[in-house]
């Protein structure tokens, strides 16, 4: 069954809501959970579901993403499996860049049609979830529909942020509204006893679609002005075709902004996290790095995830995610932080050469950092204080950005000794 499916992962636009993390990289390339990239999530879900042919569509800052996929996803010469990047390209037929999710698929359709498939599974590159797509594909086939939309129950607080829909007893979608602001009571659905008990009474679109190949070709030929699946194509499909709602009741979050990104990462440190990195049936694949084990010297650790290759001499690390090759100095206190780590180790010669001129890559001695994201390759000196929280106004500065009380130190930033934020 899954051999008939082609996966298409949407790389997203400029990712301005995730800035400054997307200043030099695309959204799917943003590091998550200390050692992965966001794009690893949909790719791993596909691989775990037996879908081994995928295209990743990207447009902005794609160099980092290209490098990651090239170095990560290698398959046997005797396999048809692949994960390929399709970057936006100008052609005589399409002189513009991607104008939306549907336009991205439309403009790359000629590449997709070089392969043999019956169904297209369209996924977002910036969501965190573990889902078995085999079940969704089977539901699509069994129902006889040509379009299936993955949906998830949400509560009244979150409903205005999503496309909300209602379905009949056969799970065929009967109505849809984009980001409703009023009259939410009219959109309550029967999401099941367990979901109702949690107050999750509304069915929201997850931005995950299955289309029959022939229908997708027909849609694109009918109206080239439709640029977006969620805003234009799906609402039109509801008036012309039966569209199946496939309800997913597991953990899912949209990594749309800094606060949701921050919460999703720190949520991994919970005693029983909603997103389970330790589930062997839903493995998350990423680049295999030949790194040494992490070394910890005199540090008190609590609710912390530590990736490979770290050297930690901090006094205390609490409620934090520590990324690959992180270096944290003596006496430093880290709390409620995501430290992304670095792309390389400094040699002893480099350390000796830079001593006294600028901080080393990593975090220095006797620092206090709370409610912060430290992007890769940052250099934070000694005696630095970074305390995020509601007391800080939002703002973009040369070395850091503040959003929703979270301080985001920019990639490669140099924070001098004694700095207070």
From TrEMBL:
Q: Which UniProt keywords apply?
A: ATP-binding, Carbohydrate metabolism, Glycogen metabolism, Nucleotide-binding, Nucleotidyltransferase, Transferase
Q: Where is the Nucleotidyl transferase domain?
A: 7-269
**SUPFAM superfamilies found in the cross-reference section:** Nucleotide-diphospho-sugar transferases, Trimeric LpxA-like enzymes
Question: May I ask which residue range the UniProt record assigns to the signal sequence?
Answer: none
For this protein, the record's CDD domains field holds: ADP_Glucose_PP, LbH_G1P_AT_C
Q: Which GO terms describe its molecular function?
A: glucose-1-phosphate adenylyltransferase activity
Q: Which domain of life is it from?
A: Bacteria
> What EC number(s) does this enzyme carry?
2.7.7.27
Q: Which NCBIfam families match?
A: glgC, PRK02862.1
Q: Which family does it belong to?
A: Belongs to the bacterial/plant glucose-1-phosphate adenylyltransferase family.
Identification of the protein by name: Glucose-1-phosphate adenylyltransferase
The top of its lineage is: Bacteria, Pseudomonadati, Bacteroidota, Sphingobacteriia, Sphingobacteriales
